[in-house]
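Deviations from the work plan: none for this task. Representative record:
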Amino acid sequence: MKIATWNVNSLRVRLSQVLDWLSSAQPDILALQETKMTDDDFPGADIEAAGYRVVYAGQKTYNGVAILSRTEAQDTLTDLPDMQDPQRRVLAASYGEVRVLNLYVPNGSEVGSDKYSYKLDWLDRLAHYTRQQLDVHRHVVLLGDLNIAPEDRDVHDPAEWQGMVLCSEPERAAFRGLLALGLCDTFRHLEQGDGFFSWWDYRAAAFRRNRGLRIDHILASRELCERCTSCHVDKGPRRLERPSDHAPVVAEFDI
DNA sequence: ATGGTGGCGCGGCCA
């Protein structure tokens, strides 16, 4: 089973790239973030024509999540428990015994800001929901743009990013808290070393210089982690004309 | 270089 995540930064702009990528990569499940469109505008027919089912939770201009899949989604959920939030950042769905939690974690803007407080509160609520989901489902895959670089080796220049949003200690503690619930980072389960990133700023030729962060993740519950055979970043789409600032991350599981 | 680029949507916010 091949599962991928990709922050597309507008599905309207990136639809042809997504369809091309589905055709070449052939994932079973592709979780998208930052679709930036309302449900009325969602290009469901194009995606179904490509052989995928799709569920989505969108809004105008900002945020928006979707899951494309070979099989039909069951038991979808679009809000963290006890959280009234118009921002569409959550889409959970079941595919057989696999529970997928597709997340667009708040960026946080800058440490100390209101948006940063919102991010930490959001992550706390996510941890509670994840713990509950791990109790209920045999297999859980938590993936998406988590907007956290977990360790210094996930950062092109740790000194430059020291204490900054995406890298601050409270955010990293929240990431470790998710792992402590019984999840593993599939990328680190299999890969070693540094220089592997999933996001590069559009500015200052950051991609060409590989000045990026690893902030898009695929976390898996213990049994799935043991069955994970690969996890990698596909930099191909980031090299295209008019790319998203994120690249897809892809994990394969022997299930 | 307190900027830089990109998306949305048409001024300014967000990343």
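Chain A is about 25% helix and 25% strand.
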